[in-house]
Amino acid sequence: MRSVRGLLDHYALFVGLRYSFSRKRNRFTSLIALMSMLGMVIGVASLITVLSVMNGFSAELRHRILSLVPHGYVESNGPGISDWRQLAADLKQAPAVLAVSPYISDKVIFGGRHLLRGGVLTAIDPQSEAEVSRMPESIILGSLDELTETPFSVVLGASLARVLGVGLGDRLEVTIPRLTVSPLGLFPRSKRLVVVALFEVGAEPDSYQAYVSLRTGQKLFGGGDRVAGLQLKTKDLFSAPQTLNALASTLPAGLSVRDWSQTQGSLFRAVKMEKIMVSLLLLSVVAVAAFNIVSTLVMSVAEKRRDIAVLRTMGARAGGVMAIFVAHGLGLAGVGIALGCAVGVLLASYIAEVTRFFEQLLGVKLFDPSVYFISELPSQLQWSDVVTVVFASFLLSLIATLYPAWRAAHIAPAEVLRYE
């Protein structure tokens, strides 16, 4: 008897999978099982695809926005840094610091042909700027070297220039939040600058950022030879917060340190939180599909009552019967998860081509670069996401099978066989 029980328990997986894929099942039960698997396919595929698209958006933001943002800043808590050249030389001696560049930055008002627009004006050293950011690579018209060669010149973001209605060679009025004392009273400082170049990174800075040379900035903002701070580039972007925290303890009094996670971190935290929320919402689709298996198993238990009774009278234990129906449910779920995983990986890998196909089919542009800063859906498939989705789907499916399997294990064989 023990050997028979052991044999039955050993074949629980085999019997359960046979129930899952048998062609002799009731047609309605088969239809419900098919719908459950289809729901699992859709849920898993959509979850993997959306997570990959969210990863792609995060990577695009990181590449575009951080291309203009240095890894960190050393700033003065007072009116500025007067001995910045010596400080820059000292910072370059730090093992983790690759480059240093001075800057002055403040909010200003740009006056175009027909309107005014607020923005940020940053004074940089064109030669050293290329070492701390990729801004020089983003120039689409003109040359960054013109800032040094042409006095009182400016480089504008492409979107800002378009809004102001100015182009290369045009002049625009810049009003700076500094007061000029004259016999007639106090007036804000303003200056006409000539546009010598346009840059474009395909992100929000295109619509508000402008650059002038360091010498021009010192004349516009005042303060003599002082600078507001120094921009730093470290060996690794993501370890920059730890590197700069360690560097802060070596700086003279009156200086503070900021890293990119403090200036831009809220944006990336928002993207990460959005990814988590979208994942939870789409996981509910998988949960609905998983719990559709409950109805399939309940109907299957009712259909297999005689088989259960025969197995119990042959010596099968309740745990063995329960294992049969757990295997039955996981077999259905496993097929849906496998197909959904395959479809999701394919969609995530070729989402740009799929989007392009529908654009050509419908004759519309789904993503206008002038509106969305992108021309197609970015996607970055991460296998860790795929593993997480598969694990969560199997876990939900396992939970869904427990109650019907428990009911099957507690069917009384005597009551079933009495009427056979």
UniProtKB/TrEMBL annotation:
Keyword Cytoplasm: no
UniProt-annotated location(s): Cell membrane
Pfam families: FtsX, MacB_PCD
Keyword field: Cell membrane, Lipoprotein, Membrane, Transmembrane, Transmembrane helix, Transport
Membrane-spanning segments: 28-54, 276-302, 323-352, 386-406
Predominant localisation class: membrane
GO CC, one annotated term: plasma membrane protein complex
ABC3 transporter permease C-terminal domain mapped to chain residues: 281-413
Membrane topology, record value: Multi-pass membrane protein
One GO process term, biological-process aspect: lipoprotein localization to outer membrane
Occurrences of domain MacB-like periplasmic core (ranges): 34-247
PANTHER family per the UniProt record, alphabetical: LIPOPROTEIN-RELEASING SYSTEM TRANSMEMBRANE PROTEIN LOLE
Family to which the UniProt record says this protein belongs: Belongs to the ABC-4 integral membrane protein family. LolC/E subfamily.
Database matches in NCBIfam families: lolCE (TIGR02212)
Name of this chain's protein: Lipoprotein-releasing ABC transporter permease subunit
Originating species: Sediminihaliea albiluteola
